[in-house]
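Meet my pick.
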Amino acid sequence: MAYEEKTTYEDDTSLYSFLRLINILVKKWWVILIFMIIFGLTGFIFSRVTYTEQYSSQVIFNVSNKDKDIAGSASLYVTQSDAQASGMIANNFKNLIENGNDFVSIIQKDVKEKTGKTYEKNYLRRLLNVSLLTDGTLVYITVTSDDKELSNAVSNSIKDNYEQFTTKVFPTANFTIADNPTPSELQPDTSVFIYTLVGLLFGTIFAVVILVVRSKIQNILLSSEDIKNKYGVSIMAIVSKIDTKKSGISRLLITDRNVGLPFIETFKLIRTKLESTKLKKGYSVFAVTSSTESEGKTTCSANIALSLAKSGKSVILIDADLRRPAVCKTLGITLDGDRGIYEIVSGQKTFD
């Protein structure tokens, strides 16, 4: 039950909003879990449907800036300048394979001779992955294809024809094979893990967004802290809800001991706070209201009036609900005819 007097609330609202959001997410953990399962399963199924076997073969080159015909002590010593020059040549070789036309054209022609099939140059280029060791002279060329024989054919074609290309483009450099092409091997399938993980992540994000948007749209007050932060009012007491059907109680009045001691003590607490407010502020009239019906207006107002009356106060309880007045019914008072606040205000009846 909230009292309408405004109070200064100095707490950090941003922190409170964050904590409130965390509270909503914790309470709705099962919603997040359901979306995680749905999206994760979707990612798993997608990975299985789209999966194709991939085979890889690799050949490794060593690059040197020194001509292979150099002999004697000059061929034995590698200076810092030699290493830098060799690295630049290796990087240029990589760029020509990835973006050039001549190297792929040579491979295209040789692969046709080996397999009897003609492949587009752009398709063959997409099969190649070229990498360098940092500040190194080793060039790794990996050929990956869903066709095992094609992967072998391309890697062996690179081995057989690289000199034709490097001798022409890098006449003073020395390219040697550091490791012959490896037989094509089936690559491990990482798509299941990746797509499932992405699905779980998107499921979590999607669920959190839905919960946040839903909480913003509904604008629900979940606790007394929500009331304090949103409306700046102080909470006098919280009245527990009693199920009259299960408890067998026809009327929730503090004069009936069957409602339980906590229920009775709550209204004693409200009475004490109202008396204190009256002394401090001089107020004598209090309104009990809510936004919709069946939220406890009649129960609270009747029990507050009874509690004040039991302490010796003179109390007048006015039922201002023009549509569904229920105070008389709650207090067990039977009226003959229409006698209520409307009839009195309109002059049709008197207080007598």
In short: The beta strands are 2-6, 55-64, 128-132, 138-145, 174-179, 185-186, 233-235. The longest helix spans residues 191-218.
